[in-house]
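Hi support team,

I submitted a single chain yesterday and got back a structure, but I'm not sure I'm reading the token output correctly. Could someone confirm the output below corresponds to the sequence I sent? I've pasted both exactly as they appear in my results page.

Thanks,
R.
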Amino acid sequence: MTNPLYILETLPTTDQAAMREFDDRYLASIGAAQPPSWSDLGDLFPTSAPMVTFPISSLALKYVQVQGEPRFKTLLSKSFDIKSEEFSCGIEAKLLDLTTQVFAYRNWQLGPSRMMIAEANFRNESIVTLLEAGASTAWVDGANFFSATHLSDLNNPSSTTWSNYESAGTDVVSISNLQAQVTAMQGVLDENGKKIGANPDTIIVPTGKFEPLKNLLAQNLMLAGGTSTSVTSAATSNPYVGRFNVVHAPELTDANDWYLVDSKLRASSGLAPWISVRYTAPNPSLQLRKWDESSDFFKDTGRIKVSSHIWYGFALGFPHAIRKVVGA
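Hi R., thanks for writing in. Yes, this is the structure output for that exact sequence:
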């Protein structure tokens, strides 16, 4: 039987045929859903403007007993800007290879899907850069994004403070440590100094902690102290079985630091821990640029190439729904 991978008639006969195939697959890829990415725990906004301003409203209402005239609260807000910048990646190949070698052409056809994967990886890497610098990056209340002294009321420097940062070395592979950090995150306050209801359901960890933590949380029984999964006569029930979505973030450069996230706060209250903005250039030819047989590049090299250009901006969003724990 003839192997269909080697049927020569399936190969393009011209550079334009190869370019058309690339275009079709590229349009199909960008029209489909983006590849899954842990950075989706934040918000991704498509925009037609290269710069977007995000207001942070200060309006947490509270009922009080009416004595005399009704009370009203003035809407106050702060804001931050996110500016998009241009990034690119590309693929090139010898035209002779594309028209004579099946596997070379198959790699060419895979180019658009690989660009989508590269874009998802790029978002992850960009968010990691922000998170790992968050303990030294100022937020709108004057404290760093990860801080033990966030203001409950952004417009009142004397208001009660709350924390989304643990600086002491704390290993994530420990039930007792998890309990302490979850309890600490549940103390996040709203503008009135009341607990906002934070209750983390996601843990972002680096590679070395992913399997040990998953295995620990999958055990129905554990030893006292919560650091072992061995079953002995002293074993007790694991209170966190099925509680957390453990997310592997291989882009994290620190081998021990970890992050608690409340994905429900992001969904219900708009408190995304980070924000990604994707600007769409008005001219499609700016997004996908091609060098065919008519280009000087081809005349010099015998190659054709395509480059994809994307515009992104990234920023840390709201500290209420995320807590950083320096690991050990």
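A quick pointer for reading it: The longest helix spans residues 111-132. Let us know if anything else looks off.

Best,
Support desk
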